[in-house]
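Worked example 2:
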Amino acid sequence: MDFYSPYIVYIETMKICIYLLIPIFLSCRQPYNSGEEINSPSDSGEKEIPSELEFEQDASYEPLASGSAIYYLDALNGSDDNPGTENAPFQSFEGLWSHLTGGEIVYLKNGLYDDYLARQFFSFSNWISFKPYPGHNPKLGRLTFQGWNGIEANTFGGLYSFYLDFIGLHFADGISLTSIKNIWIRGCSITRKGELTGSVEAISKIGIDIRNSGNIYIENTEMTRIATGLAAYGKDITIKDSHIHHMTHDGIQLTGVHIALVEGNRIYNADDGISDDSGFDWNRHNDGIHVYIRGNGNSSTYENQDVIIRGNTIYDIHGQGIQFNNYHYDPITNPFQNRNFLVENNIFGPTASPVFHVSEGEPVAQLVFRHNTVLDFGVDGRSFTGIAGRQTDCLSYHVDFSTQCTELEVYNNIFATRTAVSTSAIRRDHNMVQSLRGGGSALGRGSFIYEEPLFSNLEKLDGKLLPGVPAINGGTRLDANGQFVSSEKLNNFDFYGNQRDNRPDLGAFEEEGNYPELEEPLVLDSNPKTIFIDDFEDGDLEQDLWLDDPGVAGLSWTGSSQYSAKMNSVFNSIALSGPVGADGGTILLCEAGHDWEDYTLEFKATSYLPRSDGPVLLARDESNYYWLDIARETGRLLRVDNNVSTMLLQADDLRIPHGGIQHYKVKVKHIVSGGIQFKVWKNDSPVLDYTDISTESESFSSGRIGFHRYVDEESMYYHRIDVDDVKLTLD
């Protein structure tokens, strides 16, 4: 008896129970957004994200029709010379196959059925169902079905219709499907024989291997003791409510699928037992779901497109939870891409590498990432032991997206730690992060930090929220432009099929019984503005239209690329972050305000051992401005003429202290008799009052605001000051 024999016995005994529960399970689980469409551009020109897929096969299909012809197989007592009746069953698939025309039901009695290869160059007329004889536990060897003989054209998505439906069976050495259509696998268990590591052949063993096939439907099926649970290349593929675990390679590989649904699966425990730099040719990286374009991607069929990855639970992976690759992508010479993906309502536990990763040079086109939950198990993470015997510490919670992704939308998610969402994303708002370990990337308007307990039972990995936490009603139904999206683009259900309300909860779980008011859409105001503000909650330095109110406009900024907007634990929000370790001077200026004369500038600031940093006033350009240096040991006011600095005043009380939040107010006024007056308050206390009456001041009749840091050799390793809630009021 090998190590896994007890586990196989367990699968055998549970298999019938699983089959009996299928109708109950399906009746209890609510569907996701049934009837929605994908890839149909709206009249407004907006991109339609995949919300529900339309497969060729009717989802209401029930193959076990009354009056169907019935055949029986008995590996122990049957004979292929028999007529296949209950009392005189066939012994094998070899004896059965020539009797099938379509519409039959096949019952399998106890025994081990040998490997079987079916090459078929015609289509059955109707569905053929295979299921265990009541009270029996048959075990099948490897089944291989091919609809292509190497001569006829290899049609993408399958050439011949096999119409085979397998229910509640155990496949001891996997299933291979090549160039065929219409296969259902429901309530089954899949394993592979022999070693799963130690050679390329072993690590290449796949539980369900789908090659150039279509209308493949896998539901409520267990795939375990395998290298890869399932690999799919084809069209109209569903992998739903299945249990994929204890692998030595990947859980699911999507290697060129058009129209696919990966929903409700639990994927965990993947490890080949050796390090990626071990030098063994059979070593493989592990991913829960690996989405990639094979080879040079020299055909559109190699693209993965129109795919929903929804409601899955992924954790304990010695690699990434979900990984996207496109190894040979080039926008000119090799433009094929993974495209049109909706990733929603998934629950991620920690993994050894990022839980979600789109490699930088391998972008995805039209990727929507919404209502996902990353569970934070803290700095200690989780540990698991793979079937190769190695213990793996899962310490990564990282989520990132290539900056080259096009039409990227990231919203209504719960993240654990550092998350990299490029400012090139067309939408990145209403996200929550549980910890700033590893850095604080911007997550967009409506985003926030929450470091208190969030989940009712973290160890269950169910994503259920504690009552009253701010993730509840923390999401949005408005689009990036502040308008209600069309009904077909709404996310109407959570991980459990519960209806989402007017203000959806962040993450995969929706608390029932809440009745929040509907959000107000954004209404822009075109009247003249006298107040200009930026709270940086949009996560970038562009003008935030959400700050457009009567008399108020948002600010946009230009200048040094070393300034950015990031999550800040002191402000507990997104703030303007200055450069760290940059050599020389950096300046950031607002893009408006060339005519601003007299005004009051207010902002909040926090610091950690900064030097030479602060607001810029009356800036004509990046070489001519006044500079209020609040980050020196002694605060100072300087005038910069053609990059030549003149210190006008020192004021000890002006300096920003280490730590905490300080509120600064700076009033600039041109005096009628000549000169420019500067008044500064810190936390409502006056700290500076100075009038520049020099002849040089005459050239600063008006100008913009900004922020500037000068870093010399002595101070280049000091940290920055961060700024939030900038407000400028014209006098």
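The first strand starts at residue 70 and ends at 73. The longest helix spans residues 5-28.
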